[in-house]
Amino acid sequence: MQSTTHYCYHCGTHHPAENMRQIETAHGGKRWRCITSIEATHQDEKARDAFGHRETELNRDEAEAKHKNGYAP
Ligand SMILES: [Zn+2]
């Protein structure tokens, strides 16, 4: 039994078709990309989001601390 592979433009190599998704590029073409690389990108985005939320919370804490200090007796 011969398994189908597609060229993954992200990795620059071939993967089994069942591990890949066909996605449309900005230029209207269709390309294959492996699920592993797609999920890795999503993980990166989640990590960036989490970092952004932490930054926002830190800034808010700092602002509250300044506010409290300003009105402290
Ligand atoms: Zn790949």
Write up this protein:
The protein has 73 residues and is of the alpha+beta class. The chain has one domain (5-71). 51% of the residues lie in helices and 25% in strands. The chain has one helix and four strands; from the N terminus they run E-E-E-E-H. The strands form two sheets. A two-stranded antiparallel sheet has the order 1-2. It is rod-shaped. The chain binds zinc ion. Residues 8, 10-11, 15, 34, 37 line the site of zinc ion.
Strand runs, count: 4
Helix share, percent: 40-55%
The rough form would be described as rod-shaped
Uncertain residue ranges:
none
Pick out its properties.
1 helix; alpha+beta; binds zinc ion; 73 residues; rod-shaped; two-stranded antiparallel ribbon
Secondary structure: elements and pairs:
Blueprint: E1 5-8, E2 13-16, E3 20-24, E4 30-34, H1 35-71
Antiparallel strand pairs: 1-2, 3-4
The chain binds zinc ion.
Residues 8, 10-11, 15, 34, 37 line the site of zinc ion.
Quick synopsis:
The protein is an alpha+beta fold and 73 residues long. It is 51% helix and 25% strand.
